[in-house]
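Ops channel
N.P.: pipeline sanity check, posting one input/output pair.
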């Protein structure tokens, strides 16, 4: 039998990177939640928390959509 190799889409790896960056940004945002940096305007909006969560959600969507599945 001839074995077929399956190509893993690059978008799957993009989704993994988005998740990793999202976790790192979310963690830094949560670390600064109780001690916001001084002199920063609108620090009460906690932008790193929102951006980290958004990157995680987008990463999950990309990984789910482009997950390499075997052909049946």
């Amino acid at each position: 039998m001839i074995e077929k190799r399956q190509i893993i889409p690059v978008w799957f790896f993009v989704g993994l990177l988005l998740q990793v960056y999202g976790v790192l940004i979310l963690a830094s945002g949560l670390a600064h939640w109780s001690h916001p940096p001084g002199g920063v305007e609108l620090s009460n909006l906690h932008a790193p928390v929102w951006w980290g969560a958004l990157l995680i959600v987008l990463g999950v969507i990309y990984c789910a959509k482009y997950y390499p599945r075997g052909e049946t």
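N.P.: looks fine end to end. The CA atoms of residues 13 and 70 lie 17 Å apart.
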